[in-house]
Amino acid sequence: MRHQTSKISPSSSFLSIRYSAVPIVILIFTSLLLFASLRLLQEELSFQAEKDRFNGDLRDAKFPWNKLCFGPTYEKLRLAVFSKTWPIGAEPGGMERHAFILYHALAARGHEVHVFSVPSDRKPHRDIHEGNLHVYFAANDHGSLNTSLALEICNKINILKAFDYVHTESVSLPYWRAKLVPNVAVTWHGIWYEIMHSKLFLKLLSNRKVLPPGSPSELQEAMPRLVEEIRFFSNYKQHICISNSVGEVLVNVYQLPQRNVHVILNGVDDTKFVYDPELGLQFRRKHGVPDSASLVMGVAGRLVRDKGHPLLYEAFSLIAKRHSGVILLVAGSGPWGQRYSELGSNVKVLGTLEPQELSEFYNALDVFVNPTLRPQGLDLTLIEAMHCGKPVLAPNYPSIVGTLIVNESYGYTFSPNVESLTQALEETIRDGPKLLQKKGMACKEYANSMFTAAKMALAYERFFLCMKDTRYCQYPFPSDC
User: Fold this and answer.
1) Which of 211, 242, 300, 352 could form a disulfide with 206 if both were Cys (CB 3.0 to 4.6 A apart)?
2) Which superkingdom is the protein from (predicted)?
3) Phi, psi of 413 (to 5 degrees)
4) For residue 265, which of 127, 61, 2, 112 has the smallest C-alpha distance?
5) Are 241 and 235 a contacting pair, CB within 8 Å?
6) How far apart are CA 1 and CA 3, in angstroms?
7) What whole-number distance in Å separates Cα of residue 406 and Cα of residue 411?
8) Average pLDDT over all residues of the chain
9) Tell me, what's the pLDDT at 290?
């Protein structure tokens, strides 16, 4: 045997190499899966560690205050609030709903809140007085907020008993008025730096014939507006941002002091937006969604071009041709409603839903789509859908990927163009309802930990207390959890 020459045929050599490669391939894929799992674990541990290790002045926090656990306080505040509109009826925008949720929550916690605003429907309404919440309507002839009249009412109430702090939703209190107020904070729901991005995306889409061409001077006019805004922002004493990305922009681009910029994320009423599959099934049947549907997508809001409906219309028209079992539910009103109905039986236009119907709508979906072309603020519809246990599909704007869809466990992102959106829709279809449900449960858990009305109200409460008395700036405070 030892003198026998060993001969190996080329075919046996190939088989040997092929079979030895199998465990290597398995090892590589296992390593990749482990790496992905470790990355997610590291993100979760980092999130937990950030909360656990912070000890100091809250004004130095470089992350959302929602991440912290604030305990009860027994000091009550008296707040004056300026808001462009106060929600009346079923179609309030995001800023109005934010105001409605926040000030009701603060009033429920025992703080005296006086809101100076106008009705969102621009019709005459009596002032509202509900316990600790007082809403004064001060409209001009066009139905917009009359700042002079609102300040006059505010000053009369202030004489009776001074306000602890003044808060304005964006520029509801103009900067030339705000600079005369000693204790004022502003919450930004959109800044011109983001609006410039929006105008850029709209311009690019108009060049692709998805949208009609807009004014050629829009982009040229945007830069001077941005410079003007940067200059007047310092007239507000303290700045609250509703996304991580805006906080970074205000410090790095608008050059505001880090200690004057704070991030408090939006929250919604998690007792109204809840995971309830049975409600979803009832909603599907009510609106004629066939049991044979392979996947149900949904979009909600104003059906106008800057909300991205030209994008979704084009992308879904392609999807409907390829996947006959995929259904799109469209909730809202606007000029694009009629166009969606032209896409045939794959699309069901529901019109404007009552507030109590929204949770049913989200529960009826497999995935919620938000195609907006406005990278401004933090859309409440995404948060509501997450609370209802639904993954979300949205543009890859900094405010979204840096705050909401922080990893692929929570949904899908796309660049604001038809091709990228179509690819993202195809990916959700490939993943299918079972994987989408798993992602939805991850969304629900994340939303409950960050985006509730209670967490938002506690963060704002602590902010105002900190501004009034620096003892409350220390974290953890003796009563904190």
Assistant:
1) 211
2) Eukaryota
3) -130, 160
4) 61
5) no
6) 5
7) 9
8) 87
9) 96
